[in-house]
Specification:
The chain is α/β, with parallel strands linked by helices. About 30% of the residues lie in helices and about 15% in strands. The chain is elongated and about 90 Å long.
């Protein structure tokens, strides 16, 4: 039986097809029906496609466009254009499912047919490659559809390697963290390595949700396509403002970024799909659905560093881990009951004694703990300013019955050093709900919880990207692996913090050191 590679080997004739001599605007005018003049992001994509050259690897193209801006149509026409100009020989079109990839390939087939580009046939007149999943023209140009749902075995194309790869329709709203991780592995370990050394790679899609492949690629959390053109996140309407009128969300202000999707069309979509869906699909506001802590904003919840007043209450939390990362946080509360996250330690590969020392070092940097004997920093510490440490008690605390205790448990190392560790509240769902309460704004628009700027980067990353479970929006997605900072944080909040007592000194004197943020974005008002 003839192998797939032998079916796809292109001919040696590299002469461009009719139309290749035209600039892409003129070619599009005779090859496609354009509904409106192109916007800047359309032109950027077309200039990239028209800049392709055989044997030359370009920087990856990442285009995050809103729904309705012609993402897939642009890429499909760009592939046809590379066939006409002979700037590429073989494209792999990758989507989340084989069915979705097949639809895109069939759209390309329709463009081929409208331009009179014929399919390849053998000497007997039978097609050599023209199906729902594969196209091969009589010029030796090929397109193959590939679904990530069939990606466990990787992309096996024999000796032939695609010199063009498209990632389109990769993410969907219902993706769990585990599914996203599986897609990452398939793309980075199966799809991209299948390309030739000069492979041109295109990733075009809207963000879908905060933990999507597109979102993680844009943020750099997923370090693929690092050699790329500067990606731009395009929204449908700049300066969008809506008002609720008579049960409808009405656009009252905004400028569309493309004339092909004007405010009238956007209003129709809001009426049809709801404002929340429009914000996610067209404004790239992925926090409008899918995020566990959608109200968290780093710029709003951060505050400037400050000296901790002596009378403020201080406590801490610790999520235990040895091979997995361990995480500690230090908190304080002011007279109004607002909470401040003062510092964080996050590290994997530490034993309990090393975790304890790292925690003590953090407290020392914050000025809330010190060795009893400065000549013996490995001995007992004075942790009297830290009221308690909410400690992860999974296999770390000794049994309550003394007769059942064997050996030394991890938390006992901490007790010997003077750390007031107590059992944390382990109820995850209650902890996330409680965290949401602290993140939510008061009536004056300010949050009740602040994070000192730069003090807890892992916590900020967790709160910014943690996804809800698909089956339970109030629970963290079970496949979310990097939850250690989140666990420590909820332990600290579940201690039920309370207000610090009034300052023993005069209020005017304390006002000089006690920060009171009364405005958003961490601005200080004394």
């Amino acid at each position: 039986m003839q192998g797939l590679a032998s079916l796809l080997v292109p001919k040696q004739d590299e002469a461009p097809l009719p139309g290749a001599e035209l600039a892409y605007p003129e070619w599009l005018a005779v090859s496609a029906s354009l509904t409106a003049p192109m916007a800047a992001h359309h032109e950027r994509a077309w200039e990239w496609f028209d800049g392709l050259k055989l044997g030359v690897k370009p920087r990856a193209l990442i285009e995050c466009w809103p729904r309705g801006h012609g993402k897939s149509s642009t890429v499909e026409l760009g592939i046809v254009r590379s066939c006409v100009r002979r700037s590429r020989k073989f494209w792999l079109y990758c989507s989340r499912t084989q069915e979705a990839a097949d639809r895109h390939v069939q759209s390309i087939a329709e463009i081929f047919e409208s331009l009179g580009i014929e399919r390849a046939v053998n000497r007997y007149g039978y097609s050599k490659g023209w199906s729902a999943s594969m196209l091969r023209t009589n010029t030796g140009f090929s397109v193959l559809a590939f679904g990530l749902d069939a990606g466990a075995r990787g992309v096996k194309l024999g000796a032939l390697r695609p010199d063009g790869i498209v990632l389109d329709d990769i993410d969907e709203l219902g993706d769990s963290a585990a599914r996203v991780e599986k897609k990452e592995q398939t793309i980075t370990q199966g799809v991209i390595p299948a390309g030739s050394i000069d492979a041109a790679i295109v990733f075009v899609q809207n963000r879908i949700h905060a933990n999507s492949i597109m979102s993680k690629t844009l943020s750099g959390d997923l370090r693929m396509l690092a050699n790329r053109e500067d990606p731009a996140v395009i929204i449908a309407v700049e300066g969008l403002r809506t008002e609720e009128r008579g049960g409808r969300d009405i656009i009252v202000e905004g400028v569309p970024t493309w004339s092909g999707k004007d405010l009238e069309i956007c209003q129709q979509e809001i009426d049809d799909m709801t404002l929340q869906s429009f914000l996610r699909e067209c404004q790239q506001e992925v926090g409008a659905g899918g995020l566990l802590f959608g109200k968290f904003r780093e710029a709003i919840h951060e505050c400037t560093p400050f000296a901790i007043p002596r009378h403020w209450k201080i406590w801490a939390s610790h999520d235990y881990g040895t091979n997995a990362p361990a995480c500690s946080h230090v908190f304080c509360s002011d007279e109004a009951g607002d909470i401040y996250v003062l510092g964080e330690h996050y590290q994997a590969g530490q034993e309990s004694s090393q975790q304890c020392q790292s925690f003590l070092d953090l407290c020392a940097r914050l000025g809330v703990a010190a060795p009893v004997d400065k000549a013996n920093p490995d001995g007992v510490w004075d942790c009297s300013r830290v009221e308690l440490v909410a400690f992860d008690y999974a296999s770390t605390f000794p049994p309550e019955n003394p007769e059942q205790r064997l050996g030394e448990y991890p938390v006992e190392v901490w007790w010997r050093r003077g750390v007031p560790a107590v059992r944390a509240v382990k109820d995850r769902k209650a902890g996330w709900s409680n965290g949401g309460e602290w993140i939510a704004a008061r009536r004056d628009g300010n949050p009740r919880m602040w994070i000192v700027r730069g003090a807890a980067p892992r916590l900020v990353k967790f709160l910014s990207g943690a996804m809800s479970a698909v089956s339970d929006p109030d629970e963290l997605d079970a496949g979310y692996r990097d939850d250690h900072a989140g666990d420590s944080w909820r332990y600290g909040l579940m201690v039920r913090p309370y207000k610090s007592p009034p300052a023993p000194e005069a209020v005017a004197q304390n006002a000089a050191v006690a920060p009171r943020w009364m405005q958003k974005r961490g601005k200080r008002k004394l």
